Amino acid sequence: MLLDGKTVLVTGASAGIGRAVAIGCAWHGANVALNFARDVAGAESAVAEIEKLGRKGVAIQGDVADPQTAKDFVAKAVDALGRVDVFVNNAGICPFHAFLDMPVETFERTMQVNLHGAYFMVQAAANQMVEQGDGGSIIAMSSISALVGGEYQTHYTPTKAGLHSLMQSVAIALGKHKIRCNSLFPGTILTDINKEDLADTKKREYMEGRIPLGRLGQPEDLVGPTVFLASDLAQYVTGASLLVDGGAYVNLQ
Ligand SMILES: NC(=O)C1=CN([C@@H]2O[C@H](COP(=O)(O)OP(=O)(O)OC[C@H]3O[C@@H](n4cnc5c(N)ncnc54)[C@H](OP(=O)(O)O)[C@@H]3O)[C@@H](O)[C@H]2O)C=CC1
Ligand SMILES: C[C@H](O)[C@@H]1OC(=O)[C@H](O)[C@@H]1O
């Protein structure tokens, strides 16, 4: 199995993409520690799924916007599972809002969760990998939004571009430690984050119509790309990004 014997940490894994990726990594052989903020039942059921696959799973609660959460998550994951081979920075929010009257708190919270939180999480995971001395893989759940704009996402798209920029810089900083750092760029994936936005049938049909593969994404669509970047199949891939969008980005006209 591609992730046999590896320990994977995933942030924001009580629901959506993070949950699918955590369970998917276990399916491919990994033990998994998952971070979440509020959804205890979601996190516990993800651990139950991981254990059903015969792997170890542990759920650790913490708000990634607090820099201390990063140190605590990595320390508790190492206590429970022994080490960190793969770190998936996935936790994120996207409270859709117009630009001209964006509340300061919405802007700041989005930055703190999506970008500041990622910075300290990646730093904590990288320090653990450096201490272990045998490399690792860091994967950021960035977005197609790192490449394109969104009218109601002016606070969000910069966090996704920033996340990819962080991966590019840490790929250089951590290369000497054999730690690879890459970004995934999901397109529109059906999860709670956009449930309300896509409840608008006209918008949903427009979005679907833009996708050459003919459908919006499901959280499970991110499992294969994550496992690839996590595994030794990607041993010479670092500082890279991979679009997982059914072809939406290239469909201009
Ligand atoms: N869905 C999409 O179309 C796309 C999503 N992405 C990115 O993928 C990632 C996952 O999104 P998605 O699965 O759709 O979203 P969901 O809303 O379905 O899930 C978000 C997850 O993040 C957790 N989370 C939210 N805030 C925090 C926090 N402060 N600290 C720790 N955990 C937190 C939630 O946990 P809890 O509920 O327990 O708080 C939940 O487990 C995000 O970074 C998003 O930007 C990128 C491109 C497209
Ligand atoms: C939440 C949105 O539906 C989703 O988030 C992203 O990053 C994608 O670009 C979509 O806009």
TrEMBL record:
Query: According to its UniProt record, which reaction does this protein catalyse?
Result: L-rhamnofuranose + NADP(+) = L-rhamnono-1,4-lactone + NADPH + H(+); L-rhamnofuranose + NAD(+) = L-rhamnono-1,4-lactone + NADH + H(+)
The answer to keyword Oxidoreductase applying to this record is yes
Q: Name one GO molecular function term.
A: oxidoreductase activity, acting on the CH-OH group of donors, NAD or NADP as acceptor
Show the CDD domains listed in the entry. Answer: SDR_c
Q: Does the keyword NADP apply?
A: yes
Which keywords does this chain's UniProt record carry?
Answer: NADP, Oxidoreductase, Rhamnose metabolism
So what EC number does this one have?
1.1.1.378
* Xref: SUPFAM superfamilies: NAD(P)-binding Rossmann-fold domains
Pathway field: Carbohydrate degradation; L-rhamnose degradation
Which biological process terms from the Gene Ontology are attached to this UniProt entry? fatty acid biosynthetic process; rhamnose catabolic process
InterPro entries on file? NAD(P)-bd_dom_sf (IPR036291), SDR_fam (IPR002347)
Q: Which family does it belong to?
A: Belongs to the short-chain dehydrogenases/reductases (SDR) family.
Q: What is this protein called?
A: L-rhamnose 1-dehydrogenase (NAD(P)(+))
Source organism per entry reads Sphingomonas aracearum
